[in-house]
Amino acid sequence: MEIKFLTQPKEGKLGDIIKNRLKEGYAEVHIIAGMAKDTGFEEILAEIESASSLSNINCYIGVDRKNTSKDMLSKLLSLGVKLHIHINTDTSKVESRIYIFESEKANSYIYTSGGKFSSSGIFESISTITEIKFDTSDASDESAFKISKNSILQGTNNIFHSIDQEEIILLAEKGEISARITERKIPKISEIYGVNQSSGENSDNSQLLGERIYDESTSSSTIDLNSLEDIDIDFEPEIAVRMNVQLEAEKEAKKEQKEKEELLKNLKKNANDLDKFYDNKFQSDEKKKPTIRMSDELDYQNMTTLILECNKIIEKGSGAGEFKIPKALAENLSNFLGTESATFDSFEVFDNISGVSKTDSEAKLIITSKGTSIKSDVLNAFHPEEGDIIRLLKEDNHKYRCEIIREKSPEYDVWQCYCVNTLKGNKRKFGII
User: Fold this and answer.
1) Predicted TM-score of the model (pTM)
2) What is the pLDDT of residues 410-431, one digit of tens each?
3) φ/ψ of residue 43, rounded to 5
């Protein structure tokens, strides 16, 4: 194993390193860039396209509407890149920059850098690049590489999630990422004025712009001021300009209100069906509340029921067998769940398909710095699937009833009406009563 420290840009540039490694055709490539910009990928797109047939390329990137576009993410998917994202916010940003190149025959490499994954960050900014070289012909080196790689990738499990083209379009529609076209190159100031950046000399940019936009020596310009005619603009006082203009915020408010009214209408229409599903034993206090609470109305202090779409419960590794509650949601549930890890006094699990109910006396609430989850062997024995709805009712202090509403069951649509609230960076929806 060899470790080198390179100072960018004097002793090497990360962009050149990534390009060369992609050209060499490694079996697996993992790019983990918590702060990624389109410009960074634009620099290496050609190499990714060439390497995609030879390498299994995985990108774990932090996205936001300022630096990430729909077009770039779509382009990466079209090249066969396996794409995983984290939506960066002011309170939740990923800062990791790690690049892994795994070879089955030659040397494998792991790189870290302090520079952002942008054009300037991987070529021009002053930063330290750490290169760790593993000799795959040496058993101890190969073992050290696999341990390092697995440890790094395991750390991405609960931070990044994989996306497809459908979700990319949805992210653009919601404004989480930009919808701009990245292929259109915008000329630099130096190019507009015909100055070569590196030499400072005049250069002919006719291939870029068609003709020189401004030439001080000839005083030519794009617009001939002498050719302009006087233009008179008359305003009609009868025109109500404001009537034809509607602010985006007003549009969004009306759209949200319309959606809410439609959801309430559907919920009231279907709420009576719950009597049939529960043999007329549906709780009377809940029957009086066929109300959907939108995100700005949620009363976490007095809630009695959490309704949440189930995550994919993994069987092995960190977090195995845990029903996870998204961190952004769990932060508001201190009154409902508590603030510390504990064993429930009673945790009853009910499956709405089989009608079977069992109590788990050893179910645990787990609260760590990484998040909040519930671990119950009884719940796992029912094998809830991703997409099922978990309805968690608080019956008393440390006493809960957990109902699994199967996605294929007839009452699923009714309970899904409550799951109208979303969390940034998470596809699961939730509601409270």
Assistant:
1) 0.45
2) 888 888 878 878 876 678 888 8
3) -70, -30
Residue closest to 107 by CA, chosen among 141, 77, 134, 143? 134
Instruction: Tell me the average pLDDT across 187-198.
Output: 52
Alpha carbon of 114 to those of 121, 131, 151, 433: distances in Å? 9, 13, 20, 46
Per-residue pLDDT tens over the stretch 37-94: 999 999 999 999 988 777 799 999 999 888 888 999 999 999 999 999 999 888 888 8
Q: What are the start and end residues of each CATH 3.30.870.10 domain in the chain?
A: 2-174
Average pLDDT over residues 101-118: 91
Q: How many angstroms separate the CA atoms of 110 and 115, rounded?
A: 15
- CATH domain 2-174 topology: Endonuclease; Chain A (3.30.870)
Residues of CATH 2.40.330 domain(s) within the chain? 267-432
Q: Which of 395, 387, 413 is nearest to 286 (CA)?
A: 395
- DSSP letter for each residue of 275-291: HHHTTT-S-HHHHT---
Instruction: Please state the rounded mean pLDDT for residues 397-414.
Output: 88
Tell me the residue type at 169. Answer: I
What is the residue type of 62? G
pLDDT averaged over every residue in the chain: 78
What are 423-428's contacts with CB under 8 Å, separation 24+? Answer: 423/326, 423/328, 423/329, 424/87, 424/89, 424/92, 424/176, 424/328, 425/86, 425/87, 425/89, 425/92, 425/161, 425/328, 426/161, 426/326, 426/328, 427/161, 427/167, 428/308, 428/309, 428/310, 428/311, 428/326
Question: To 5 degrees, how large is the angle CA 399–CA 401–CA 404?
Answer: 155
For residue 182 the two structure tokens come to: 């990245």
Nearest of 381, 373, 336, 340 to residue 357 by alpha carbon: 381
Domain 267-432 fold is At1g16640 B3 domain (2.40.330)
